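Morning - uracil inputs below, output right after.
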Amino acid sequence: MQLHVVDHPLAVSSLTVLRDERTPRSRFRPVLHDLATMLVYEATRTLPITPVTVTTPLATTTGARLAAEPVVAPVLRAGLGMLPAALGLLPEAHTAFIGLARDESTHRPTVYLEAVPADLASRPVLLLDPMLATGGSVLHCLRLLLGRGARGIIVVSIVAAPEGLSALEAELPAEAAAELTVVTAAVDERLNDIAYIVPGLGDAGDRLYGEM
Ligand code: PRP
Ligand code: URA
C-alpha cells in the first residue's frame, strides 16, 4: 500500500478548521470541499495520460488528456461532501454510489446502496470517504470494487487512523494491498473505545449534514 499524507500548508490549515468543534456546518462543508480538492489533485497525480496534439494561436504542440474516464465512488453519507470537489477536477468522471452506515455497537458497516458500474477494469477508481477509522467501511467498498475488476484503487480520506490502515494491509489480498494507494491529510493517533478517530474531527456525516 502506498500512503501519501498531504501536508501542504493549505491542507493543514483547512484540516485545522475541520477539526475545530466550533466550526459550524455552514463553514465545515466549504472547507471540506476545498481540502477534498487538494487531496484529489494529489491523488490523480499518477493517472495515465494520452498525448494529444493542440494548436495554439501561435503553433502546434503536444498536450495530454486522461487516458481513461475515471470513476469516483463516494461512500454515503460523508463521502458526498467530497464528490463536488472530485467532479470539479474530473468533470468527465462516472460516479458510483455506495451507501453504508456503521453500526455504532459492532462498528461494522451495513449496506443500503450499491450503485456501481458492472465493469471497472482499466478505469482509474477513486474511493471518497472522509474518515478511515476501523477501515471496515473502506474494506467493504474495496472488495466490491475489486470484484468489479478495479485495479490500483485510490482511497481519498480526510483523516485516517493507524488501525484502519493496518486493517487494509492485513485484510486485503496481497496483490490488491500492494496496488492500493491511500491519500489523506492526516494519520491520527488512534481510535477511542467507540472507534472514533482521536483527535479526528468527530462524526463527519453529522458535521456535514446534521444528526440522524
Ligand atoms: C462514517 C464515515 C465512514 C465510516 C468510517 O460513516 O463516514 O464511512 O464511518 O468508519 P470505519 O472505518 O470504522 O468503517 P457512518 O457509517 O457514520 O455514516 P455517515 O457517513 O452516513 O454518517
Ligand atoms: N466515523 C466518523 O465520522 N468519525 C470517526 O471518527 C469515526 C467514524
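Note: The helical segments are 9-19, 25-43, 83-89, 136-147, 162-171, 174-179, 204-209.

O.
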